[in-house]
Amino acid sequence: GKKSHTETSRNINNLIKKSILIKDGNPVQYHLQTRTDNLNQSEPYRKISFGERDNNNPHKTILLVGETGTGKTTLINVMINYMLGVQREDKVWFEITDDQSDQTSVHSQSSSITVYGFYLQESPIHLTIIDTPGYGDTRGVEKDKEIAESLLSLSKSAEGIHEIDAVCLVIKATQNRLSDRQIYIFDAVQSLFGRDIADNIILLFTHSDGMHPKNALRAVEEAKIKCAVNDKNQPVFFLFNNCQTDAADEDFQTIQEQSWKLSFRGMEFFFQFLEKIKPKTLKMTQDVLQQRKQLEANISNLQSRVHMTELKENELKKTLEQDRKKVKDNKNFEFEVEVPYKEKVDIDHSVAKMATCCTVCEENCHYPGCWWVSDLSWCSVMKDNHCKVCTNKCHYTKHVKESKIYKIQTKKEKMTFEILMKKYDGKIRDSESLVKKLKEELQELEKEKIKLVIEAYDCVETLEKIALNADSLFILQHIDYLTEKLKEINEPDKAETLENIKKRAGEKNMEHWDT
Fold first, then answer.
1. The domain containing residue 277 runs over which residues?
2. Are residues 299 and 165 part of one domain?
3. How far apart are CA 467 and CA 460, in angstroms?
4. Do 55 and 201 share a domain, yes or no?
5. pLDDT tens by residue, the chain, 515 residues
6. Are 192 and 325 members of one domain?
7. In what residue span(s) does the AAA+ ATPase domain sit (predicted)?
8. Is the same domain home to 272 and 297?
C-alpha cells in the first residue's frame, strides 16, 4: 500500500539528517550515507550499500548497461528517489552514486563494476543494481573481457549474485542509431548469458520528451538486439527524462513538472514489470563464460600446434626432396633444413600481462586473457585440477603463470645420412627405407594436423551453440584462419559453416570489428 505523503515526508526528514549535503538549491542535493563494503583491491568490483539487507524482503537484481553519456548514473538515482517516495514538492534529491565512477580513481581503474545495494526498510522490495562502467572509453576488447570476468567473479563471490531479474539497456531516446561500441557491448552482455536471457532484457530510454521513441526503437531493431516483447510483440521499454536535478525555474515550471512526472511514471511501470518477471539464473552464464574461456584458449593453443605441425612437415618434405636427388650415392649427402623449436619469450605487454603455460607440453594454455588468479587451480582453463587445453591435459601443478610465453622459432641445421640414421635409431638400412620412413612420418603429421583443425572447429561450433550471441569478437578473430585450414584439409562443408557465421556477423555490422 502507498504511504501517505506526510509519512513519507517524515522519513525524508530523518534521512536528510543522516545524509551529506552536496549542493544547496531547489532541489537540495544530498548524498546518502552509504557503506563501501569491499575495498579489497583484488575483487574486480566495488560494493556500495545503503541500509541493512533483510533476507525476508523480496529482492530484485538488475544489471545496467549503457554508454557514457546516456545518463545511467542519473537513472540509478531516479530509481532510489522513486523508492524513497521523494516528490517534487519535497524539493530534495538524494544520490547513491559517487563521483568516482566518472573519475579514474585507483579503484575504478582496477574494478570494472559497481554494485549498489539499496535496502530501504520501508520499501516493499530490496534492490541490487549492478552498474557496468560506461563504455565511452576506447580501451576496447580487453576492457570488455574484464567486465565479463567481473560478472563471473561477482557470481562466485561470497555475497554472490546468482540471478538477475532484468538486464537494462540504457539508450538515449533521441539516438537514431546505436554506436558500434554500444552494439558490441550489448552483444557482449548477451553472450555472457544463455539464450534464455532475452526475455529479461529491457530498454530504458533516457532524455525522453515523453513522445514515442521511434528513432531509438528503430536503432535497436536495426542493431538486431534481442529483448523482451509485450503482448503486441513490441519491445518492452520505459521512458525517463534526466533533468530531476536541474534547479527549479519558474519560466519552465510546467515542462519541469511534466518531466519529473514522466520519469516517475516510467519508474512506476518499470517496478511493476520487475514484480512480475521471473529471474534468470547465472548458472548457465558461469558455464558459458568458463567454457568460452576454455574454448578461446583452446583455439589459440590449437593454432600454434597446427603451426608447429606444418613446420615439421616442411622439414620432412625438404629432407625427402634432398634424399630423392641423392639416392644414387646414398651414403654421403649433406644439406640444410629449417628445424622448428620452442623458446620462452617475454610477452608483448600491449597484448597481455600474464599467461598460464604448461612446462611439460611447453604450450601456452591460457593466453591472452589470463589475469588476477594467483592459485593456478583456479585458472579458467583448469577443470578438476587438470588443464583442458594442453596436449597432455596436465595437472595444474605442472603449469606456471608468468609474463613469458612459448614461441615457435626455426633454425637451420645440417643434415646428413648419418644424422638421419641416428635419428631413426638404426632402423634404416638404405635410402629406400629412409624414404619410406619419412613418408610414414609425414602421413602421421598430416593426420595430427587434421585432428587439431577439426578440434578447433568443434570449439567454435560449441561456442555457437551455448551463447545467445556467438558472433562474438573472439570467434571472428580466428575464423579466417580456421576457414583456410579447413579447406586445406578438404573439409569444404565445415569451412562453409564458418563463412556463414562470419557473414551473419557481417550483416549485423562489420564496422565495429575493425576498431
1. 5-281
2. no
3. 11
4. yes
5. 556 667 777 888 888 888 889 888 888 899 998 888 665 555 667 888 998 888 888 889 999 988 778 888 899 999 999 999 888 888 888 999 876 544 443 344 445 688 899 998 888 889 999 888 765 555 555 565 666 666 666 666 655 677 889 999 999 999 988 887 777 667 666 666 666 788 899 999 999 988 999 999 999 998 888 889 999 999 999 999 877 778 778 788 888 888 889 999 999 999 999 999 998 876 555 666 677 778 878 888 998 999 999 999 999 998 888 766 665 555 667 888 899 999 999 998 777 788 999 999 999 999 877 765 567 887 888 889 999 999 999 999 999 999 999 999 999 998 887 888 788 876 777 777 888 888 999 999 999 999 999 998 988 888 777 655 545 566 677 888 899 999 999 999 999 998 988 887 666 544 443 43
6. no
7. 58-227
8. no
Number of domains the chain contains: 2
Can you tell me whether residue 285 is helix, strand or coil? Answer: helix
Same domain, 208 and 253: yes
Residue 162 near residue 281 (C-beta atoms within 8 A): yes
Query: Could you tell me the CATH number of the domain that includes residue 81?
Result: 3.40.50.300
Q: Are residues 23 and 87 in the same domain?
A: yes
Identity at 370, one-letter amino acid code: C
Provide the residue type at 17 as one letter: K
What is the 3 state secondary structure string of 379-419? CCCEECCEECCCCCCCEHHHEEEECEEEEEEEEEEEEEHHH
Q: Which 3 state secondary structure label does DSSP give 272?
A: helix
| 175 and 311 assigned to the same domain | no
- Alpha carbons within 13 angstroms on the beta-carbon side of residue 197 total 31
Q: Is residue 374 part of a domain?
A: no
381 with 294: CB under 8 angstroms?
Answer: yes
Residue 117 phi, psi dihedral angles, 5° rounding: -105, 120
Residue 302 lies in a domain: yes
Rounded to an integer, what distance in angstroms lies between the CA atom of residue 38 and that of residue 173? 35
Q: Are 131 and 47 in contact (CB under 8 A)?
A: no
Do residues 254 and 298 share a domain?
no
